[in-house]
């Protein structure tokens, strides 16, 4: 059995990324966290893949009654299918604790620091930039009444 279960509810705009205090404050850390949340929401629009592997029937059967399959290799293999967050940690609690128990806000702060120190902006392709400037020039003339 394979297929795709659609999960799209119709939303096309998500507002307020990075905002705190009803938009009176902006946080780069909140923006990084919201990016993960929004990425998960957008990924859900693609639906849920339904295959023998994602259903994990064999893993559940092999684990048996009373066991758990959360640490099973099939579950671990499929854990990132829903999305690929950059700061949300999906480790098992013991692994997370051994790695230092970094909370989400601290992970987001580290990501912000890394971006501010290391991100290199890729220049816009010259042909695209030329077209964009032509559009802006045309609109400027229209607004000025020329």
Automatic annotation (TrEMBL):
<keyword id="KW-0808">Transferase</keyword>
<dbReference type="GO" id="GO:0015948">
    <property type="term" value="P:methanogenesis"/>
</dbReference>
<keyword id="KW-0489">Methyltransferase</keyword>
<dbReference type="Pfam" id="PF06253">
    <property type="entry name" value="MTTB"/>
</dbReference>
<dbReference type="InterPro" id="IPR010426">
    <property type="entry name" value="MTTB_MeTrfase"/>
</dbReference>
<protein>
    <submittedName>
        <fullName>Trimethylamine:corrinoid methyltransferase</fullName>
    </submittedName>
</protein>
<dbReference type="GO" id="GO:0032259">
    <property type="term" value="P:methylation"/>
</dbReference>
<dbReference type="GO" id="GO:0008168">
    <property type="term" value="F:methyltransferase activity"/>
</dbReference>
<dbReference type="InterPro" id="IPR038601">
    <property type="entry name" value="MttB-like_sf"/>
</dbReference>
<comment type="similarity">
    <text>Belongs to the trimethylamine methyltransferase family.</text>
</comment>
